[in-house]
What does this fold into?
Amino acid sequence: MSDVSYSVPTLAELASKGETPEVLFWVGCAGSFDERYKRVTKAFVKILNTVNVKFAVLGTEETCTGDPARRAGNEFLFQMQAMSNIQVLNGYGVKKVVTACPHCFNTIKNEYPELGGTYEVIHHSTFLQTLIGEGRITLKEGGSFKGKKITYHDSCYLGRANNVYEAPRAVLEALDADLVEMKRCRTTGLCCGAGGGQMFKEPEKGTKDINVERTEEALATGATTIAVACPFCMTMMSDGVKNKEREADVQVKDLAELIAEAQGLS
Amino acid sequence: MIQQILFVITLGIAGYFIRKRFLAIRANINLGKAKEIKDHANVRLRNMLLVAFGQKKMFKRFIPAFLHFFIYIGFLIINLEVLEFVIDGVAGTHRIFAPILGNLYPVLMNLFEFLAMAVLLACAIMLIRRNVLKIKRFWSAEMTAWPRLDANLILTTEIVLMMAIFTMNAADRVLQGQLPEHYHNTGTLFFSSYLVPLLVNTDTTVLIVLERVAWWFHIIGILGFAVYVTYSKHLHIFLAFPNTYFANVEAKGHIQNMPVVTNEVKMMLGLAEAPAATTPPAEPGRFGAKDVNDLAWNNLLAAYSCTECGRCTSECPANLTGKKLSPRKIMMDTRDRMEEVGKSLQAGGPGLGDGKTLLGNYITKEEINACTSCNACVEACPVMINPLEIILELKRYVAMEESGSPPSWNAMFQNIETSFAPWKFSPSDRFNWANELKK
Ligand code: SF4
Ligand code: SF4
It folds into this structure.
């Protein structure tokens, strides 16, 4: 870990100074608590700092969007969460939200508006793609990823649910890596097995775990990096790689981590 | 004249049965909850044109799309010939369009023969795919004897109907030489001309009978088929159109809101006034769905539109890894339950009150609990059916009416309620990740 210090302002701090950020970074529960995904949160914050995006987080004022509750059928709990989050967001006059979690992205973007919370919501893959496109992130050609095989695992909530297929791939292509596709990709991408609240329960009885099936497919491409853009996919694919005993030569990384790495930020 | 009377009676009988089934199906769909779908008319129309009329989603899998396309085009165009059949049948004419269309008529007849041959071959290949190659999606658990027979019956009937066209044309062609004043010249027709040598030496009376038998066989076959369709997965030939029109137009990730819950939550959070005590509380109804009448009508329409093709199930991550869930079965169960309720009501029975329900007697919790809400089934469906919507409604019932979700989900609910995260962490630790960065 470098000793550079990064700033992570909260909306409350900015508001007390009478300032408003360009964008709110919605960290999400996994981004806040999950040991592995906290590294993604930090990588993304480092990138935001480096390119001077004026951002803020909610800090302890953030709570679960309610997505897992809604998908497990508990509409009451979902709406309680949604409504109190919307009160906080509207209270600060938030206009634009970026998040690294496709589930938070989907919920805030598609499901908060009818409950009174309308914002411009962007997933970090699209955000990174824009930064690269604007030249605010520059990646030197022939960097450490040159020629390395990377495969991208589509998150259902980014892909099929919201038609974001190209942004994550554009980010990976900027790394000058050799992007290889799995047999089931884009619209037919296979779920990692964690959606719809499955993350929080044991799978039903079956013949195989979904994440193992998906990991086998990813490994079959010969890629040494499995790129993901979702905290649940991260967990499921990492577990899959462990199950196949390939942790030594295959890594599972989020897009933000890969960009941070390429920029020497990690 | 007798033929004309018989024909009108035949038409009448077919019409009677079709009407009866139409009304029954409409009544069954109306068991569902009212829901107004009037938004985005342009997008909906486009979906209908591209997906139903244009078969867009079929072409994700080329071979079956190609075969299906021939049958589809054949169906659309050969029906023009059926129009002639009907007019001839009622008016007692023979090939009434022949003198009107003149030189165009033989061209059209040849086109029909080519299509008929294409349909015949496509059906034969499909029969092979189902019964010899035994393609997996046609043999999964919910494809029991009846759904398999249904598919085979349809394909076989289409083959036989097409053969009737060829026989009729061949007999007609020979008769054109023998009795030119009654049989209009159709010119040489490509496929049936191969049958002509078999018939040239046949007695004229026999030929007349043969031509008539083939004609009657074809038209009765078509009318019978039209009645049969209403009992079969083949109903999609009509319902694919309304179903694609009424299908969701929002992002697939969006879940239907429950306004009843919104009102209650607003009151709990003090964002809305509780209704004055004088207004009687509105009947809240069930949260989620336990039976078909708890589902929205368009979900029920979707169940009748399902082609049982199994594309959804073949993409479903749960099904692929051996779980009980199959999105196709969800649609088939919904339809079967609707039919059961409808039949009971028609016979003056208890209908919905027969002690059975969709959830429980048809679909189990084990099935719905396996869904990852990944939308693969929704994406795969060639007629834009959304099995996920039904699964979610069933989950809502289990969670909110029965508190019967799996224990680990109940624990997750509790965590969200008490620590505002699905895991049991202290909310005050939520921002600790930043400490290392700030230093
Ligand atoms: S949404 Fe559910 S039923 Fe549909 S494919 Fe995914 S897991 Fe299967
Ligand atoms: S729901 Fe759609 S994809 Fe599934 S079997 Fe029915 S028609 Fe086919």
